[in-house]
Structures are given as structure tokens and as C-alpha cells.
## 1
Amino acid sequence: MDSIRTVGVIGAGVMGTGLAQSLAQSGHEVVLVDRTEDILGEAVDAVRQNLRLARMLGGPAPTEDRELVLKRISCTTTYEGIEAADFVIENVTEDWAVKRPVYEVLDARCAPRTVFAVNTSVIPITRVGAATTRPDRVLGMHFMNPVPMKPVVEVIRGHHTSQATVDTANRLLGQMGKRSVVVADSPGFVSNRVLMLTVNEAVFLLHEGVATPAQVDEIFRECFGHPMGPLATADLIGLDTILQSVQGLYEAFGDSKYRPCPLLTRMVDAGHLGRKSGKGFFDYASTLA
Ligand code: NAI
């Protein structure tokens, strides 16, 4: 594939919003898909706000008029314009029952040459590839959050992923000013197999009354030099995504070390999802618009 001009971004939540911004800032036309106009409107507002605050937030500041960047993002609930996509990055809810029908639509509507990248926390890429008629053109691209600020992406080669597909993904990342670490397919890949277990274990420490959230995170920040502790990281990712990921690892490996902590399940049931809901292990009410 020669040039990657138009990129479909499916799902306009935490990750889709960051991706739409990064792609539009690097000159790509973006077709942003979600279920409702309201969600899409909120995503575009978030991109506008993030472009305005980019310098303060530590991400790459726009080098051109902000409205020009925003104009490259077209929003749709009906996949209108997806046929033009050279590359699609799917970021819908971390649930295979939700993701699978999205691939049926994409496979039917996109050109056979179009590459599909799965942005998932733990779902095996080989399973996604097998649900399409182009498994050689499906790969994992595990972007980190917030997307505009993270220079490295974990790229996952599924069982059938071709080298040409990996090369195309690397080219797109190069255009976005990012680079990859390419790994083989395994539930949770490298990052989340380690991170989700660490977060879940940190929640067990709270559940057992061993330490407070502030104490757990202080130990990781001050003793190990991590920029953020595991519980603030969980709040940033979203506790619903964390729970789905831990459950996904538990089902994939059948190993009790991945059983979700009951406190994590209770917090999700209570609607305490972290930054996106204003409350998780820490409070964010004052940072919500
Ligand atoms: P989110 O919950 O913020 O956003 C998911 C979006 O998908 C929502 O806007 C929802 O309306 C939309 N959606 C659901 N069903 C849809 C459908 N049928 N068609 C179109 N849109 C649909 O989730 P988030 O955090 O953005 O995660 C998305 C994916 O990225 C997940 O698979 C997650 O595991 C993965 N991921 C998340 C990271 C994080 O830090 N939050 C990091 C890396 C990957």
C-alpha cells in the first residue's frame, strides 16, 4: 500500500478520541464512528480542548490552525465514508461480543486491501483475524493512553498477520511520530499481562485493609520511580476496562492468579470507573468539565 491518507477510527471513547486527535494532527483524514451523535460530539469537544491545552498537557502542540486539524475528523454513526479508509483502528468496548459485529460490518464495507488494527487490552488478535475474510491484514495495535503523549505502541502479530501488514502499521506509526515494539500474540500481550495482574493485586491490598490507595501508589512512585502508581494508572485506564481485561486473562489462561478482586467488581458495579466517571480509587470531581 503506497499512502495511508484516510484512517477509520471505530469507537470514540478514551482511546478513539486520543487516536482521532493524533491522526488528524499528523495530517490524516479520520472517519470517527460511534453509536450516538452525542458520544461523537463529546469526542470532538474533547479533541478541541486537548488541542488547546496540548502544550500544557505535555503533548505535541498543533503546528497549524486548530480548526484545520478538527476539520479532518468526520463523525458518523452509520460508517458513512469508511469505504475510503486505507487503514482502520478499532477501539470499541473491551468485550468480544461487542467487537465481533463491528468486524462483520468493516469486512463487508472496506476495500480488501484495508488493514484492520485491533486496539484491545487482552483479546487475542488471531481470534479477531479469524472473524474476517482477511486475517493476514489484521494485527494488534495496543496504543497507550493518552495516545498523543505516548511515543511507543505495542504491535501484535496474529497467527496469520503478514509482514506487509506489520510494515504498513509501522509506516502509519512513523507518520504519527510514533514507533512500535512488535510482539507475538498471547492474551494481554506483554504490557497487560503484567500490568493487569499488578493492578488487580494492588486492589486486593485495599480489599484486605493492608494499605490505603495513597500509600500503595506512593510506594511505587517514590520507591520504584514509577511516574504513576498502579491505582492512579487504573483510574486513568478506566476500572471497567481493567475488570474486563482481568476477566479476559482469567478466561484465557484458566489460572486463578487472574481472578478479579471482588472490590474491583464492586467499584465497577457502583459506577466508580476512575477519571472518566469522576471517581475511582481517587477523586476527580474537580477535573470533570
Ligand atoms: P471506552 O469505554 O472509553 O470507549 C469505548 C467506545 O466504544 C464507547 O464510546 C462506546 O460507545 C463505543 N462503542 C461500543 N460499541 C460500539 C459499536 N458497536 N460501534 C461503535 N462504537 C461502539 O473504552 P476505551 O478505554 O476507549 O477502550 C477501547 C478499547 O481500547 C478497548 O478494547 C480497551 O481494552 C482498549 N485500550 C484501552 C486503553 C485505556 O487506557 N483505556 C489502553 C489501550 C487499549
## 2
Amino acid sequence: MSLGKRLAMYHDNHLLSRLAGTAIPSKVFATRPGLPDVTYAELFEGAERFAATLTDAGLQPGDRVAAQVAKSIEAIQIYLGTVMAGGVFLPLNTAYTGSEVAYFLSDATPRVVVCDPGNQNEISQLTDDAVLFTLAADGSGTLSETAAQKPAGFSAVARGADDLAAILYTSGTTGRSKGAMLSHQNLASNSEVLCDYWQFTEQDLLIHALPIFHTHGLFVATNVALLAGASVHFLPGFNADAIINAMPNSTAMMGVPTFYTRLLDHSDLNIETVSNMRLFISGSAPLLVETHERWSDRTGHRILERYGMTETNMNTSNPYRGDRRAGTVGFPLPGVELRIMAGEHEVPQGEVGVLEVRGPNVFQGYWQMPEKTAEELRPDGWFITGDQGFVDADGYVTIVGREKDMVITGGFNVYPKEVESLIDDIPGVKESAVIGVPHPDFGEAVVAVVVRNDESLTESSITSELSGQLARFKQPKQTLFLPDLPRNTMGKVQKKALRTSYAGLFS
Ligand code: AMP
């Protein structure tokens, strides 16, 4: 089918018509190690067969399709096929256990659930109403078997800018995780802005090693590549050797900070390996200044750091051309408004407060949680991110941490990042996390959890290094050493887990 014919079929579907808008059908969408390439025609024909399968299973516009499946091209096709059929895509982290999945299924009441064949028995117990299909990492399973009987050439269901395209559950720092409702326009507008800002074109080959149950791999990486008509080097997960091997033929990579620290440990990372690469992007968690500098020394490339979240897509980015400043997340993206607040008031320039953002990227609210939505999304469209940060005189935004991670000790606020940055600068420290734990006198006490690469480093040497640099109330009351910091799949340090582990330290 020609591109023109496909676009005519997708014309009334806001997101799909944009994602499918540029690539000629014979162009390769994905290269995969050890597997055949996938062209744009194959990608969309497979999605069309899935859309027909979902519709025949009873999917009505607005119905949810939940998928807890391994990363594969078929998984991308479930996303595209769901949007095509007018449905709402609900990807689930493959690490979720049965009881966690039970909550998501009861909350989102999907019409269709797709799971790994190995989980079929367990998942079938969790849902009475949904139609269940299976999809294995190699693409086999009842979904593909059923879809093989359907014709390609599905006419996309008409969906407008404000219709929902996806619900992504947030990782939930407190209480139950919340389903962020994302509209066709939320996704399309953000990918268009990013494609332009980062100058993606059909010439690009993007290394795609991120998971696709999260906004970073699913929307930032996949949607931007599709919109540009670019190709992806599609890897099932992070693998330093596979990424190093892919670099000489690739042009860009999107990763979380741990990708960069692990690649720096690879002896083959050097100027020659990256000579074809034009852009390295980092996000989802803070990139240490030290990592930024080591990467730049080793490869000659300055990593472009950006900041976003499930609820808002991407909000800020360092510039493509111009100074990419380590430790900052750059400027608000075109169309995104950003302000720094203390409650109801904007703080003076340069001071720390809570970041709020507004724009076409900001989600529609939390699924079936009107009170939570009202707490975080103001009636005039400003979203209270819960991230704390400041804007410097040049307009660069710096994130200093999550509001919930801020430590209040003896009535004073301590921003963990300020303490962590100083600890990280001490020779022999690999990285650190600063948390607040209950304390009988101070309410909370500052505790530093440190990963060292020099075993001779002691608590007292850290304390004496900090004493000249930090006000006393900011200095850790105790410093503990761990071999690694607990992290989730997106590379975020799990401060909640640390707080739980050390809750009894001063009791
Ligand atoms: P998620 O919804 O899982 O994407 O998590 C979003 C959160 O990740 C944000 O609210 C920030 O706290 C954090 N985050 C994302 N990108 C960055 C970044 N570049 N620097 C610091 N924190 C970040």
C-alpha cells in the first residue's frame, strides 16, 4: 500500500495520521540483532491486523487494552493497533507481580488484556470480563495467531485531539499508583516539538534500548522516530556490547543516566566508536555532572539532558545548538510554560520552589481519581509536578529533587541534591543518596547513603570534608555505605526503599 493510501485510511485519527505521516513504506523502521529488519509497511500492516483483532474481540472506542509483554516489535504494534482501533493503550511494567497487575486490571477495566504465555493462567484468574491474548518475546502467541487470519488495510477509527490514546500508571511514591490519562494531542504535540527541537529526520538511526512500558521508550523514543520517518536499532533491553556494536552505524541514542555510566565502563567506548553519532540524550533521572564530563572527555559529545514525567511528557530540554549545561535540564520546550512556585505564589528568579508546567503536553487527569487530579492539576491548566528546582539568570532549569524527598530537620529545609553533589565530589565516592529519616529531636535527620569506590573512605572523612562547606543542619547525622543504590528499571534511585530500610536508625 502506498503512503498516500495509508494516510487516507488513517486521516481521521489524530495521533496515527501524524505518526504515519512521513515514511515511505519500503523504508526500514527497525533493525534488530539476529532478526530480520522491519519496514514501515510491515510495521503498520501488523498494527492493522492487530486493530482488526481487537475490534473483532469487542473493543469499542475508548476501551482500554492492557499489555504486560516483553519488548518486541509486536508490542509496538499493539500500541499502534490500539490507537488505530480507537482504544486506549495501557502498558504495564513486566516486573509487576500478579497482585500489582490485579490492581491495574480492576482499576482500568480493560476490554482486552495481552500477557506473556507464561503468565496466562495467573492473569486469567484476575479478569472475568476481558478478552485475553498472549504474546511471547519472540512474537508468537494467540494474538499473532488470531491476527494472521485478519486482513491488513484497517481503516483507523476516527479520534480527535482530546480523545484518550493511553493511560500510563505512575510509579507512585505514596499510596496507590495513579493512571495518567494522555490524549492524542498530548502525545502528538510533544513528539512534534521534540522531533523538531532535537532535529530528527529520516536520516536518523536511533539506538532504542529503553523499555516500552514507560513514557521514555514508548513515547519519546518510538513516537519521535516514527514522526521523523527515522529508523531504530531495536534492542530488547540495555546491553553495553550491543549498543557499542550499533554505534558506528547509528546517529542518536536516548538513555537513562545508568546507560551512560555503564557504557563508560566499556573499554571500546571512544571517539572512533561514536564518530557517526550526532546526539546522546539523557533523562528520567538526574545525570551526574561527573558522568556528563567523563562522557564529554571520552567521546567529545556533550550529553543533552532533558526533563519530563509520565503526566506531562517532556517539559524542558538543553539546546540542540548552544550550551548543554551539565546538572541542568535546559529550557522549557516550545509551547510549554514553566513557573516556580511556593504554594500559591511564584518565587523570585533563582530561588528554589515547586515546578509547575502548562501546555498541550500536560495530561488530562488521573483515571477515576478526581480528587487526586484536583490536588495536582489546577483548573487553569497548571500541573504541580512535585519536583523542586530553580531557573538561573540564563533561563536554564535545575531540578533539586522531589518535594516528597525534601528533608525537614529541626524546622529547616534540606534539599538532598545540594548535599549529594558535595558528597559526590569527595574523592573515593561513586555516588550518594541523601534521605530524611525520623528523629526524636529533629523530626527528621539527614542521612547519607554512599557508594564508595575507595574502601578506605570512612564516615568521619566524609563528615570532615562536608563540615567546611555545609551549614551544620544540612550535614548528615549519619553516613552509611552500601555496595549499590537501589534503582528501578528507569535508573531512578528508590529513596522510598532507603527511607523504609533506615526508618528505625534513630529510634
Ligand atoms: P516518570 O513519571 O517515571 O517519568 O518520572 C518523572 C520524574 O523523574 C520527574 O518528576 C523527575 O522527578 C524525574 N526526572 C525525569 N527527568 C529528570 C532529569 N533529567 N533530572 C532529574 N529528574 C528527572
